Amino acid sequence: MSTENALLTILVEKINNDTLVLPTLPAIALKVRKAADDPAVNLNKMGDVIGQDPALSARMMKIANSAYLGRTVKVENLHQAVTRIGLRQIKNIATALAMEQLFVSKNPIVSDYLAKLWDRTVDVTANAMAVYQMYIKHNSNSKPLNVDSLTLAALVHNIGVLPILSEAERHQDVFANPTFLNVAIQKLAGRLGATIMREWGFSEEMVQITENWRSLKYQTDKISFIDFVRIGAVLSGAISSHKDTVMNLCQRKGIVQDLNILDSEEFKEIRDDAKAIFK
After folding, report:
1. Is pTM, for the whole model, over 0.85?
2. Which residues contact 15 (CB under 8 A, 6 or more apart)?
C-alpha cells in the first residue's frame, strides 16, 4: 500500500470510528466565549478575562487601533479597547485572534508546514476582508454582513487540515512528498472542518464554509461569507483551478463589479492593514 493510501485509509477509519483527535478551541477563546454568553457580563469583566492572556490583550489593542475599525483616536489600554470593540463583536474577534495558537507543533517539519499554513490562512483572511470593505464602499445600500464573523469564517475555513497534519506527524515520510499530503487534504479536510466546527458549537453557516469552500457546487443565493472566503482564497493562491469561475461568480453576484479594483493601491492598503492585525 502506498504511503498516500495508508494515510488516507488511517484517516478515514479514524473519522468513521470517531477516534481521530480533533483540535480543541484555545483555552482563552473558550473563556471569552463563555463570558460573552453570560447575561451578567459587562465590559470590565470581559476586560479581566482577556487580560489573562497577554498575547490576546496586545492583539485586542492592535485591532481596536486598526483601520479595520475605522478609528483615528488611539486607545491606550485594554479596557478602552474592549469598550471600542464592544461585547457583541468581542466573542468572534477574540476567537479569531486566538486561532494562531492551534497552528503549532513541537515537531520541526510539522511546525514549518503549520507556519506556512497559518501565513496562507492570514493571506486569505486579509484578502477576504479587503474585498468586503471595497464591496461595502461601492454598495452602501446593501445589508452589511457582520465583519468580525467574516474574519472568523476566513480564519477557520481550512481548520480541517489540522487533524490531518497531526496524523501525518506519525508518518513523517509523508512530508517529504507534499503530493501525498495534498491528496489527503483535498479529500478529507472539508469533512473534518465541518466536524470540528460542529464540535466547537459554531453556527451551521460556519460548518458549511469549512466543508464547502473548495467545492463550487455549493452556492448560496444571496451574497454570503463563503463568497468572500473563496475570493480571498483565489487572491492568495489557495484556489487556482477554479480561479476564473470564482471571479465570474463574484461579478455576477455584484460583489466586485470591476476586477481592476483588486489591483488598486486602495485595495492593497486595506489588505495590508488587515494582514498587520495578525502579524
Report:
1. yes
2. 188, 191, 192, 195
Contact 180, 8 (CB under 8 A): no
Q: What dihedral do alpha carbons 191, 195, 198, 204 form, nearest 10°?
A: 10
Residue 113 CA to residue 200 CA, distance in Å, equals: 24
pLDDT digits (tens, 9 = 90+) for 39-54: 999 989 999 999 999 9
**Side chain identity, residue 2:** S
**What's the chain look like in SS3?**
CCHHHHHHHHHHHHHHCCCCCCCCCCHHHHHHHHHHCCCCCCHHHHHHHHHCCHHHHHHHHHHHCCHHHCCCCCCCCHHHHHHHHCHHHHHHHHHHHHHHHHCCCCCHHHHHHHHHHHHHHHHHHHHHHHHHHHHHHHCCCCCCCCHHHHHHHHHHCCCCHHHHHHHHCCCCHHHHCHHHHHHHHHHHHHHHHHHHHHHCCCCHHHHHHHHHCCCCCCCCCCCCHHHHHHHHHHHCCCCCCCHHHHHHHHHHCCCCCCHHHHHCHHHHHHHHHHHHHCC
pLDDT band at 68 (very low <50, low <70, confident <90, very high): low
| HSE (side-chain half, CA atoms, 13 Å) at 274 | 31
With cell 461569507, the residue in question is: 225
